[in-house]
């Protein structure tokens, strides 16, 4: 018997002597694309259609092949198909429900593809008809809500979420997708929360649910009252919030693991051999090849949770075993095929402390640590646009955390010490730190380490000014908390001071190039005011009196940089150019730093002359400093411990609009035919007669 091949909805024998035969479902689709009502000749047409295996590719292709005029001619049949799909969702026969869900996906995508340039209202009319839109969409949303909340098939729930993601992301700019008005009116918020609060549902569908929620929250968020924003902001159920945190932690942890695997593979490969031969001259270039697709969708979900819901802050510190050191649960693996990270869920859930007892010998972790590790990777390379957006969003999330009183309380808690292994950019002039030597410290130390690492590693021609400003603001907000609550943090403050001084040096060395693009005086003023914060209030939050002495030592040791900065801002503030005002602000801010330098330098020179020492040691300089504090006069500067709180709508709206557009395109692109494959779905129902 000749073998049968299938292609594009056609069945044909390998012998070329006969005409190709079409699948029955394809013949039925062709009838829908006629102007006549297909049920006229066959009253059981719609009933039979949903028993046929869907041919997504053919149906979408057929819709895309029609021009606008041709599509309008079959509008009644399209409306009829859409309405019968919704009716089929209420049927008890799961095969019909599966086929209806997939047909809806194809219809929504096909009609939208065809009508990219037209308004959303035309698309609503084309799919469902204006007169029936409200009732049909209400029935659709209620059916999806019921399927998501029912205890039935996990595969059906997965397909419902895929349909909702298809519906939300069908336009690049989700705020222009007017179909979402019906998703706002007929909320599925509670269904999403139910998925996140149940360990089994979360393991299967948590990723899609979290991404869907993040996108829905961003629908017309600045123009109207979005019910998903309102509801997310007041969620206080611990199981639900922890569930959301676990989904986010798993996705970020998966990214970290993939990066680490690539890094190890990279180091043991060709480049490792090459760099061993010729030294480290190629190390930076080699590292650039380590690339794992960033996950802006899950990062957006984390941002919305942190920004909107005060109760979610507690989830950041919720302990769970370090991933990679824990055993994964024996559970069904999601039916979603594996596609690039950032588009589909990881294969298993993180287990909360309630689900798996903590082992005293296993390093515990939490969402904040996982997030800090993720940030340390994506913030390494800001030349790539996606990483730049990811890096910016990481800093925005850290800004929200640094402003929160409760978050600061656990960040600075001496009883919550962790060993946080941040990724450090390979640089020629420093050795790679050994992971085993990392001390256990309060979490704020890891945040400060991350900020110092960024400051040190991004002084380059394509200067990321915006990220530097955010970075310095985060440090400032943490210092404000320490000053206010008199928290004496045992941290290597010298590393921060050194990084800040080197940043000032970089700004001065590249004055001409940078001033052509940026107002560098805003950043310089912020850096100088950080030093003013230490000078004015350091005795209330630095760990020991000797730490305060070391601050003065660093200022005196690096006085040339401050002198040069003063000369530069004085020159520009005395000219009538555009930089006069911002430069003069820096001039005034330097008053105490200059007073320290001008007070102690003559004393040090005198000490050296009296004791016939050509070069003083650090201890000798510190001795001079300690014995001459009494005669030092400093000016009290106002507002050093004040800051402007983060505001999304006024300053970040354009960034989030572009970010959500990028996420929408990415999610849609990865809802490919194979992710809607029927094979696994139908296996589940194979016993049904």
UniProtKB/TrEMBL annotation:
It is found in: Membrane. InterPro entries: ARM-type_fold, ARMD3-like, ARMH3_C. SUPFAM superfamilies: ARM repeat. Keywords: Membrane, Transmembrane, Transmembrane helix. This is ARMD3 protein. The gene is Armh3. GO terms for cellular component: cytosol; membrane. Pfam families: ARMH3_C (PF08427). The keyword Membrane applies. Residues 435-671 form the Armadillo-like helical domain.
